[in-house]
Structures are given as structure tokens and as C-alpha cells.
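Saturday, quiet lab. Running sequence design on the C-alpha cells for the scaffold JK sent over.
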């Protein structure tokens, strides 16, 4: 049997969609992603390797969370604090040399207090030395798809090797949320007290009531002020990164404006329920000549506000589809193209079982095909 790829333009529809009004950020580099749909809402020099400052602590935390997941350590495991850790400088948890601190407290010290001493303590206790840990961070980042990241330390302290891109920082934030939902609530913690010293979370969005629940700020003279943030409103979550702001106030204002823009200028619309029949496909040598292609899951997409004709929906499948067919088989791809927003793809599946036809049916179908081929040699695409 020869086959062909069939593309069916189902319909051109008018939905709540309009030309996207870009967010003109003053950040040096930035990126905003709608995590719910995977849609990139805004990107500015997102692959530029920039000094990440303390935002690179997200990678340190990911490595620590992996050690917990793999049961190499536990939350109550105590790490020994070295002299180097207490003398690192910068933001601190106020650890003392020689004391032992639980992993649970170190996590809070890194997230809430941005403690460089806590990061060095984690690095040394997991890898022996901070240098070895930084090498492991770089290797793991590449494995995770962060192709513009390298690390010279665990803290984000200025170092020629310490570089990450906005895209990579959004990616590690996405992974932290998805891979470690049990630890993610630490990022929304407002304050943490250690050794009698209470420090507040540096994330300026947490107290604004806009659904912000993470992740990490950063600042050095080289990097400027930056923030990797995430917020959830209703059925949507966004993740974003900005860096290179000149002041703490500018970072807070830009982050708030960007989050509001991402939530208020886009909306998720449900297009098809799970199991909705989209089109019919021809069946080859089966008891039935056609089969309904239905949605595998509920189909929703993200649209800019307003109205605009031109949202294109197509079905692409290789057919005719040879029997036997089992209900639930993935047979086609539903593609939705939104002007200015790109494409999304969704699986279409078989609505029922289709058994192979009888011998007589198969002979008759083959004869019919031979006749058509004789009349029209272009019936099949080679």
C-alpha cells in the first residue's frame, strides 16, 4: 500500500485574539513564558550569557533537591560548616565555623536569606569542594538543556565562568516547579530566623497579592538587579526573568508591570473538549471505510485579548490508515496557529476499534484501487 500525508484545513475561526502588544522592558535581557501552555510571551536577548548573580543559586538548589530525591541525603541531614563558608562575604545566613546545620535550614537560608555561606556549605558537603560542585553544576545544566550556562561557584559571586541566559534561568525555574513541587513552597516563605537573626525574603512581588510565589532575586555591581519570578492566577502560571536593572526599586516596578501585563493581555480559551470529533480519516482494508479522529485531551490555547480573524486549525495525518485500528491509537496531529503567537500541536486519536475487513472486502478494495490508479496515476503521492 502506498500512502500520503493528508492535511485538512478544518476551519479559519475568529476567536479572542489580536495583535500582541509587546512589553517594552528596560531590562538588559528578559523572558516571559506562560508555563501552562508553554507559550513564550516576550523575549529580549534571551540567549545572551549574562552574570546571573544570586539567581544562579537556583541551580545550586536544584542540585540539592536532586540529592534529596535520590535519597543521598535527607532534610534532617546535618552539614558541617567550614571556615571558607563563613568568610565568603556578601549576603549571609550567619553560620559559624564548625557548627552542623540541617539541610532544611540551609534550604531556607539560601532561598529566603540568599546566604552565600549556606551555598558553600551545601557545595562542600555534596561534592567535597566548591570548585568540584561548580563543575558538576555546569555539567548538569548542559544535561538539562541549559546551553548558555556555566558556573565557577555555587553562590553567584562574580566570576568569569559564572554566566547564564534569561532562557536558561526560566528553564531552571520551570524545572524546579515541575520536578520538586514538594520543595517549591519554600520559595514563597516570607522570612526566616537563624541564630536569632530574622531576615525577610528579598522577592518584592510576594506581598503584592498578584499570585507571586517565587523564585530568586540577584544583585552584583556587574550584573545589576535581577529577578527570576513566578506567579499563578486562576488556571495560569507565568515564569519570567529580568536582569540589568539599575536599582532595587526599578527591579520591583519592572517585575510587577511585567507580571500584570502577562496576565491581563492574554487569556486561555478552551477550543475542544476531550473526545471531540474533529474530522474523519479514510481507512484502508478495514470493516469501516472511515473513522472519526477525536481529541486525546481537552484542547486549550493561549490567545491575546481582542478579536482577529486568522486563527488557523489544521489536521495532518498519514493516510489512508491501515486496519486494524485500536481505539485510542494516535493517528493525527491537530495544529493551531495563532497570528503572532506561533503554533501548538495536539494529538488526535481513533474513536473506536476498526477490524481488518473480510477477504472478499480486501480483494474488492484492492481491485477498486487498481482501477482508480489506471485512470489517475496521481492518486497516490510517491
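Result came back. Writing it out in full:
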Amino acid at each position: 500500500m502506498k500512502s500520503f500525508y493528508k492535511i485538512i484545513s478544518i476551519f479559519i475561526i475568529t476567536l479572542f485574539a489580536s495583535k500582541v502588544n509587546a512589553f517594552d522592558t528596560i531590562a538588559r535581557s528578559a523572558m516571559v513564558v506562560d508555563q501552562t501552555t508553554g507559550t513564550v510571551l516576550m523575549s529580549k536577548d534571551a540567549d545572551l550569557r549574562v552574570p546571573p548573580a544570586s539567581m544562579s543559586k537556583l541551580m545550586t538548589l536544584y542540585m540539592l533537591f536532586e540529592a534529596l530525591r535520590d535519597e543521598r541525603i535527607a532534610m534532617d541531614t546535618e552539614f558541617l560548616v567550614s571556615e571558607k563558608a563563613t568568610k565568603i562575604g556578601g549576603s549571609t545566613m550567619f553560620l559559624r565555623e564548625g557548627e552542623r546545620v540541617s539541610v532544611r535550614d540551609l534550604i531556607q537560608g539560601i532561598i529566603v536569606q540568599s546566604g552565600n555561606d549556606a551555598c558553600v556549605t551545601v557545595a562542600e558537603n555534596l561534592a567535597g569542594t566548591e570548585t568540584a560542585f561548580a563543575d558538576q553544576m555546569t555539567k548538569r545544566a548542559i544535561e538539562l538543556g541549559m546551553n548558555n550556562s556555566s558556573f565557577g561557584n555555587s553562590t553567584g559571586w562574580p566570576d568569569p565562568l559564572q554566566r547564564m541566559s534569561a532562557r536558561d534561568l526560566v528553564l531552571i525555574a520551570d524545572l524546579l516547579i515541575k520536578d520538586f513541587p514538594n520543595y517549591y513552597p519554600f520559595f514563597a516563605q516570607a522570612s526566616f530566623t537563624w541564630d536569632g537573626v530574622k531576615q525577610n525574603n528579598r522577592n518584592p512581588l510576594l506581598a503584592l497579592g498578584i499570585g507571586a510565589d517565587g523564585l530568586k532575586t540577584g544583585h552584583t555591581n556587574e550584573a545589576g538587579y535581577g529577578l527570576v519570578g513566578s506567579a499563578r492566577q486562576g488556571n495560569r502560571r507565568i515564569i519570567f526573568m529580568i536582569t540589568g536593572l539599575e536599582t532595587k526599586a526599578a527591579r520591583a516596578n519592572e517585575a510587577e508591570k511585567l507580571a500584570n501585563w502577562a496576565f491581563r493581555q492574554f487569556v486561555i480559551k478552551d477550543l475542544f473538549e476531550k473526545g471531540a470529533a474533529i474530522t474523519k480519516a479514510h481507512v484502508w482494508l478495514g470493516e469501516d471505510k472511515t473513522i472519526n479522529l477525536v481529541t486525546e485531551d481537552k484542547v486549550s490555547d493561549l490567545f491575546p485579548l481582542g478579536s482577529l480573524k486568522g486563527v488557523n486549525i489544521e489536521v495532518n495525518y498519514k493516510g489512508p490508515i491501515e486496519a486494524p485500528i485500536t481505539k485510542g491509537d494516535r493517528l493525527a496531529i491537530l495544529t493551531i496557529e495563532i497570528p503572532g503567537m506561533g503554533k501548538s500541536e495536539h494529538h488526535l486519536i481513533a474513536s473506536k476499534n476498526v477490524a481488518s475487513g473480510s477477504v472478499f472486502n480486501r480483494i474488492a478494495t484492492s481491485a477498486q484501487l487498481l482501477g482508480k490508479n489506471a485512470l489517475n496515476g496521481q492518486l497516490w503521492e510517491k
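Notes for JK: Residues 248-264 form the longest helix (17 residues). The radius of gyration is 27 Å. Ask whether to fix the surface positions before the next round.
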